[in-house]
Amino acid sequence: MRIRNETKADIPAIRALVSTAFAGKAYSSQTEAAIVDALRGNRALCATLVAEDEGRIVGHIAFSPVMINGRDLGWYGLGPIAVTPERQGEGIGTGLVKDGLAAIRKLGAQGCVLLGDPKYYGRFGFKADARLRLAGVPAEYFQALCFSGEMPSGTVTYDTAFDITNDEAPRHVT
């Protein structure tokens, strides 16, 4: 398996993978594939990697800039991240997170935030921090990892792609 930057040719496979990975998950809005497409359309994907095994896309991770109190402080949001269901638990997600964090550090990122399972993301150094908030979500699931400087304080806002609802999400046939 190798992790690499996505290419235009990967887009249909990424869309199918993300849809499949989140299908039926209680914590999912079922809009994750549309969010990735909208981030791409908004030119907000600053790092987007795929895990490829024997010519097949088996994982994907996206990073996009976030604002803190309406200001660009060099922070990024991780997500969505997806691994094909039959390959989950093999370390593909771990590899994507590690390589993705390295990629945004090369871009000069000051830190990264995400919404996810504290048990999983804690291994990478992410933790809930009361100084950073995301409206409408339980505080323990909104986590941050500061790369340099002081942890900022305020409300985090993601790209408008994350505002997509099920009614707005296009249905793609792949």
Automatic annotation (TrEMBL):
N-acetyltransferase domain span: 1-152
Name of the protein described by the UniProt record: Acetyltransferase
Pfam assignment, any one: Acetyltransf_9
Signal peptide: none
InterPro entries named among the record's database cross-references: Acyl_CoA_acyltransferase, GNAT_dom, MshD_Acetyltransferase
Tagged with keyword Nucleotide-binding: no
SUPFAM superfamilies on file: Acyl-CoA N-acyltransferases (Nat) (SSF55729)
Residue ranges of the TM segments: none
Enzyme class: transferase
Keywords: Acyltransferase, Transferase
Keyword Zinc in annotation: no
EC number(s) stated in the UniProt entry for this protein: 2.3.1.-
Source organism (scientific name): Rhizobium mongolense
Sample GO molecular function, one term: acyltransferase activity
